[in-house]
Design brief:
- The complex is a heterodimer of chains A (317) and B (315).
- By secondary structure, chain A is an all-alpha fold.
- Chain A has 13 helices and no strands.
- The longest helix of chain A has 43 residues.
- Chain B folds into two domains: 62 residues; 246 residues, MetI-like (MetI-like fold).
- Chain B is globular.
- The two termini of chain B are 43 Å apart.
Chain lengths: 317, 315
Amino acid sequence: MSENLATSRTASRWKPRRKWSQWSERLVYVLFGAFALLSIATTAGIIASLVFEAIEFFKAVPFTHFLFDGEWTPLFANPQYGILVLISATLMTAAIALCVAIPLGLMAAIYLSEFAAPKLRRWLKPSLELLAGIPSVVHGYFALIFVTPILQALIPGVEVFNALSAGLVMGIAILPTVASLSEDAIFAVPQSLRQGAYALGTTRREAIQNVVLPGALSGIVASCILGMARAVGETMIVTIAAGQNPRPIKPDLSFLDPRLSVQTMTSFIVQVSQGDAPVNSIEYKTIFAVGMTLFIITLLLNIISFWFVNRFRESYE
Amino acid sequence: MTQIDQVDQSTPASPSRFQANLAQRYRADQIFQTAALLSVLIALFVLIMLLGDVFITGFPRFIQDFPSFLLSYPSRRAAQAGILSPLVGTIWLLILTGLFAIPTGVGAGIFLEEFAANTRLARLIEINIGNLAAVPSIIYGLLALQVFVRWMEPITGGRSVLAGGLTLALLILPIIIVATREALRSVPNSIRQAGFAVGTTRWQVVRDHVLPIALPGILTGTILALSRAIGETAPLITIGALTFIAFLPPLSPIIEGLRSPFTALPIQTYNWISRPQPEFQNNAAAAIVMLLIVLLLMNATAIYLRNRTQKIRND
């Protein structure tokens, strides 16, 4: 065979069958392109299904009531749908979580990127990722069975289900997200900037605080905002540990007492889903209205993060 | 910072005003470094507490007349309850999710990175994927409730294991796409150019040369994504999987199995946690032990694969 090919006289006998390879190329292009469009279809599907049912919901409940009522009692005989009740609880647990996750996560990121020896770093990073891989239902168990009794022993008036325990453990749950993304941003600041700072006579901490962190600011803020989006959308921890108790909005701010049981947007959705709400019932529509509110909040956070990254990105050549 | 300011203000004529104050600055450094180390240690300490608490509570129940916990169905009596149907349900979900998500996710990643890089469509999809990554998983549950459970009921059979697999596949699709793109991006361009130079099509280069090199990276990302899917609870509850299931989906005909209702380890765990009796909570801890064993095996495989490829690249 190879002898034949070697002579130029027989070269014409070589007929490449390009048809099949061109055809397969086109097939792959169309098929994989369709797969890529699936992600757009997912977004479209999310928006369509949320809006579709939410419109149905707002036919039954006036929009102003939804926004401004001070009580959330959808399962009562005379229901009220004040979403602020759920939003305030959601933001409270998320704020507690961020109070844990941002300082600890950022400092852990600084340690991993700036102080840890390469060998230690190789061990610590996978351990943090392991922490990130723990399912939220496990965190919920930990909050309810382990953290809450400790809090009850330390602080008077802590209920069995409370926002504080859920928020603290949620902070631990989102800590790896914040730490890992911040670490990427800090690690990406070029070494020459640190060396420049040292040459000016700064210590390590001064170089980190005045040169490295400002250089990584956009990435750090993006990681914190993503952490917040995670906290707002986190479901199982708040459902298990914070209970199902919507607190009416009152001027005495009792609804913001973290020792008490609250109901977040996500735990309301779980509560209704558990009860097997029939399609077309008002409960069924309500979870979509709440879901849409949740989606809009996380979308806004995402847009802020996107804007911030683009506005403050330091690019290094 | 203040020291640097002072340097700026001091003129060469008055060098005595410059005080380096090194002792104090080094002390501040020491405190800062200790605080940073402490943050890492706190995170690890909590991890150890969490795992320790779960294992101390759950392990005795797990090995109590050993295989019976694995081989019995959930029951109203805590001592006789087991995790057979949740465990089998989780395996079903794992297989179905992988079946749906891996081909589509890897395909989409290949399309975006190799066929349509730097087009407007690719950028739009990239932004969109960034958005999807921040969407809470319970929202995917609502989408699935509407689409897979309601509209596609004739196919999926409603609240079935098929609907659950599709839901989780949608959830991890963005993760797999991103992992695939990153793995493909790390393949040197010279390999593609060499392929084109001998007259192959783009797909042939990708199939025969780029993909084999990128495969370990893709596998790592995929396994991590699947392990995330296995731990998800909220979207499955939303599509209505929180029920008492004391049977297994039949394997033949397979379509019956796909369309049968199911439960999974995290759901059963949640079910047991939400009961007040401590015996059930011990069961929850034991179920978590099983869940963590599955996840640990998957994560360890992923990390092993990644470390192995990094070594190859360094050599």
